[in-house]
Amino acid sequence: MQDAFAYCGELVRTTDRDRYIASLFAPVEVRGSLHALYAFNAELARVREVAREVLPGEIRLQWWADVIGGERRNEANASPVATALLATIARHGLSLAVLRDLIEARRFDLYQEPMRSTSDLESYARKTSSAIISLGARITAATEAADAAEPAGIARAIAGLLGALPTHLARGQLYLPVDLLERYQVQQHDLFAGRSSAGLEGAAAELRATARLHLAAASPHLKALPQAAIPALLPVAVVRPILDRLERSGALTPKALSSWRRQLLIWRAARHPARIAA
Length: 278
What we know:
This protein is mainly α. It contains 17 helices and no strands. It has 2 domains: about 1-95, no CATH class; about 110-278, Farnesyl Diphosphate Synthase, CATH 1.10.600.10.
């Protein structure tokens, strides 16, 4: 069992550096459980990249849904991530409904269908990014984090999707809401051809503003959280600097924060939690 948790820790260290660094500020007795949750999230996030085609991706997501539902025990026992996740679910009473919704939301990643509306994007973010924060807080025994987790997770998801816009466009995906693009008269074929425009910059600016509104909504709740909840929220500390940096770059040429800067932001927020949304 320890080998399974160690595997998860290494997977998170290499695929989700923000959450790995944040987990180091959690008590050692729950750190492995956080790594199991985050490794599961990493597996879902890279299903499209690994599967490459829709059908294998759907099969993989269904496999995870079956595992969560208590099926495929023998196969799950052969997977270190599944083994550690099931132990974590049992130990901390993680919501199966939330985990199923997370898997279901990730089906969007497999297809070329565009995100239809801003509310659809927020729902996707709520079921993925916000859910991971809430589940992480559950692991650290901080059940009061729900009010902060939802808007904080949406803000982090939007910032991440804006930063990954060129990557998503290159593989035919569109997370920018269609209703937003239509309002700014942005043509999808121009986007996929890599052509920028004033309309695109306006749409990106509005989406950044939406992320900032969610971050502001999370702020008062973050300040009231118990210390136990802080590790689950620490990855949110990079959101405002990411949005600031995106504001200074073009929508199709986003500049990423360096890994050392992200690590420093998380470290500072761990010492001064008020900085998580500052």
